[in-house]
Amino acid sequence: MYVWPCAAVLAQYLWFHRRVLPGKAVLEIGAGVSLPGILAAKCGAEVILSDSSELPHCLEICRQSCQMNNVPQVDVVGLTWGHVGRDLLAIPPQDIILASDVFFEPEDFEDILSTVYFLMQKNPKVQLWSTYQVRSADWSLEALLYKWDMTCVHIPLESFDADKEDIAESTLPGRHTVEMLVISFGKTL
Q: What quaternary structure, including any partners, is listed in this protein's UniProt entry (predicted)?
């Protein structure tokens, strides 16, 4: 459990857009140490952090991060991607879903998108703000996004000052190839 390079890039994107965050409902999936979600909470968003319900130590890390960063108002819930359970059903409509490097293992991609799709049914205007580290040219979300009726916009890192080897004095992004995506529901309303 540590801050992944993608978390620093997503946090930079949040900081760049911090003026839109106050009062927004924000859910971070696969939160881990929760840097993006905690930053969103510090910027005035109403945040829920989530990680696997099958990994209680991950949920405890989320809680500890909230405690150490003085954001006791942040809820922590267990969600297992691809499974509709009580906690997923209880999540209210969200404005923004954060996902930092959750597209890690290709076998999880569809479960992640099916969970996001379920959340998009509650608010079709929700956006998934996601960063991922390019690990293989063979891995692509495009076909799955089409299947789940989602659209994707690639956000150039230089558009929010995240194209440097160090962000906010952190060398975490380093020489990793990180992509920033904004994914939306494809249906027109």
A: Interacts with HSPA5, HSP90B1, TUBULIN, UGGT1 and UGGT2. Interacts with TET3. Interacts with STPG4.
